Amino acid sequence: MLTIFATLALAMQGAAAPAACPPAVVTGNAQSARVAVYRSPSLASRKTDRLRAGTRVLVCGEQGGWAWVAYASRRNSCVPARGATCATGWVDRRRLAALGS
């Protein structure tokens, strides 16, 4: 739990995604090819973005059925090797599939 909040604090400061975040891909669901990204791990939270199925993300934390992800957006390139910042938010964990390293 402490790791989640430490990672979240870094992201809120505009830090690059930590190297320890395993990659995953957004899978979508039967109703929609887009998956909502939330400000906090709750459906009652504000939606901050929508990710298309096939979007690659980094899973940097989990809480309950939620995954805290870092991803590239129009404003953030999310290339950790280049020191770029990532867009972040919470996604329903069931809408992600792990990728092999």
Structure report:
With 101 residues, the protein is mainly beta. It has one domain (2-98): SH3 Domains (SH3 type barrels, Roll), CATH 2.30.30.40. The chain is built from one helix and seven strands, in the order H-E-E-E-E-E-E-E. It has one helix at 2-12, and strands spanning 23-26, 34-38, 47-52, 56-63, 66-71, 87-92, 96-98. Strands 6-5-4-1-7 form a five-stranded antiparallel beta sheet. A two-stranded antiparallel ribbon has the order 2-3. Strand 2 (34-38) and strand 3 (47-52) form a beta hairpin. The chain is globular and about 35 Å long. The model is unreliable at 1-15 (pLDDT under 50). It comes from Sphingopyxis terrae subsp. ummariensis. Residues 1-19 form the signal peptide. Keywords: Signal. This is SH3 domain-containing protein.
Any idea what the radius of gyration is? Answer: 12 Å
**Low-confidence region ranges:** 1-15
Annotated CATH topology: SH3 type barrels
* CATH superfamily caption: SH3 Domains
Indicate the CATH architecture: Roll
**SS element count, helices:** 1
Number of strands: 7
Order of helices and strands: HEEEEEEE
Largest sheet: 5 strands, antiparallel
The average pLDDT value, as a whole number, equals: 80
What is the fold's blueprint, element by element?
Layout lengths: L1 H11 L10 E4 L7 E5 L8 E6 L3 E8 L2 E6 L15 E6 L3 E3 L3
Antiparallel strand pairs: 1-4, 1-7, 2-3, 4-5, 5-6
Organism: Sphingopyxis terrae subsp. ummariensis
Keywords: Signal
Protein name: SH3 domain-containing protein
